[in-house]
Amino acid sequence: MKKIITMLSISLLATACASTPGDPNAKTKQHAAIGATLGALTGAIIGYKKDPSGGALRGGLAGAAAGGLVGAGTGAYMDKQQAEFESQLQAERSANQVEIERLQNENLKITMNSEVSFDSGSAAMKPAFGNTLDKVAGILGKYSRSTVKIIGHTDSSGSVASNQTLSESRAISVAYHLQDKGVADQRIGVEGRGESQPRVTNETASGRQLNRRVEMLIIPNNDI
């Protein structure tokens, strides 16, 4: 039993780590292989308990197939969604107004910097920020099998309590705009973190500007 599990692990993990330079689907293939590895190990254990004479191998292969489909499905879905965000928000990204990052748990994080979103001390959105959110809402409308968590952040200017309230108000403003553009409210969550999670020091004006931001976490549904 241990030998079979070891062989499956080595083989499938090697596939998961392998990548072809320049392959645009490398992330999807990696996640498919990782899912296959986990499925294979689970299937091998189940198969061995039911049939020590050969069920471990058969169960492992069946689990690999199922796990691979799960990993590929989520990865492919988020790959497509990320590509759309990067394409539609290219102008904002080039101007360093928006950052798009893929996290290890397959979530997408979109960071919107303060100079285009809100005036200092205000939760009223600037017109240009509304145009950016219109693009975000359009993409979210196409990819309905994901949710969005909106997180507001401030710098350390002002009191802790006022910064907490301001961060919450800004997140709510973004949520209302997305809802107005057709994103279902049950897909949207909001959170304010005030000044508690600075990206850099608050000791400089440039640092405070980076710390004033709104982040969106685009999270795939569990049923993909």
Description:
By secondary structure, the chain is an alpha+beta fold. The protein has two domains: 77 residues, no CATH class; 132 residues, OmpA-like domain (60s Ribosomal Protein L30, Chain: A), CATH 3.30.1330.60. The chain is built from eight helices and five strands, in the order H-H-H-H-E-E-H-H-E-H-E-H-E. Strands 1-2-5-3-4 form a five-stranded mixed β-sheet. Strand 1 and strand 2 form a beta hairpin. It is globular and about 45 Å long. It starts with a helix and ends with a strand.
SSE order and pairing:
Layout: H1 2-17, H2 26-50, H3 55-88, H4 90-94, E1 98-102, E2 108-113, H5 114-117, H6 127-142, E3 146-153, H7 160-180, E4 188-192, H8 205-211, E5 213-220
Parallel strand pairs: 3-4
Antiparallel strand pairs: 1-2, 2-5, 3-5
Summarize the structure.
It contains eight helices and five strands.
Give, in spatial order, the strands making up the sheet with the most strands. Answer: 1-2-5-3-4
Number of strands: 5
Specify the helix fraction band: 55-70%
CATH superfamily of the largest domain, called what? Answer: OmpA-like domain
CATH 2nd-level architecture of the largest domain: 2-Layer Sandwich
Principal-axis shape:
globular
Low-confidence stretches: 18-24
Overall tally of structural domains: 2
Instruction: Estimate what percentage of residues fall within beta strands.
Output: 5-15%
What string gives the helices and strands in order? Answer: HHHHEEHHEHEHE
Distance between the termini: 32 Å
> Which class of secondary structure composition applies to the elements?
alpha+beta
The largest β sheet comes out as:
5 strands, mixed
Provide the residue-averaged pLDDT.
81
